[in-house]
# Entry
Amino acid sequence: MVLENGNRKKPNILVTGTPGTGKTTMSTRLAEATQLKHINIGDLVREKNLHDGWDDELASYVLNEDLVCDELEDVMEEGGNIVDHHGCDFFPERWFDCVVVLQTDNTILYDRLINRGYRDSKLSNNVECEIFQVLLDEAKASYAENIVVALKSNNILDIKRNVATLTDWISNWPVPVYG
Ligand code: DAT
# Structure
């Protein structure tokens, strides 16, 4: 039997999507269900200073892609990680066995972002990002299409179903390759 992707014993999963689609909520539950490690890139960037300073306009740190990738290289090689981030095009393609793009209906997402305190251009930019499926396109452009999966995240039942589906997939990984 040959294991896929560099002989990792456990898979690496990327959970991406527009802010507010439920990446952190679902990744937390999935990590509890599977004992995989949840890595929230935003938290990691703040904790380890993997940024080039604060952007007032975006009201967020300017992530330094090289520092983030260097920081994660060893743990990703090891496997067993759930990486949670709203972008996905700068990670090495070889890191991931499954790329999940969470999607939320616009009106539901709008309310979630209002509750989070988003206003004006930050609010409209993120809702537009969801309407135009920017993250799904980015994922498809960055990874093999057969590992990219779009999952609805409108309500609690969706989260439960998504966690169950992914837990099942993880428990059956790796798919043996013969020959
Ligand atoms: P993200 O990590 O994508 O920015 P989050 O997990 O922080 O999103 O969730 C944002 C808010 O929306 C939070 O209050 C939880 C809620 N939420 C997320 N996904 C949900 C879902 N499928 N059903 C109901 N509420 C959800």
Summary: Residues 103 and 133 are 8 Å apart (CA to CA). The first helix runs from residue 23 to 34.
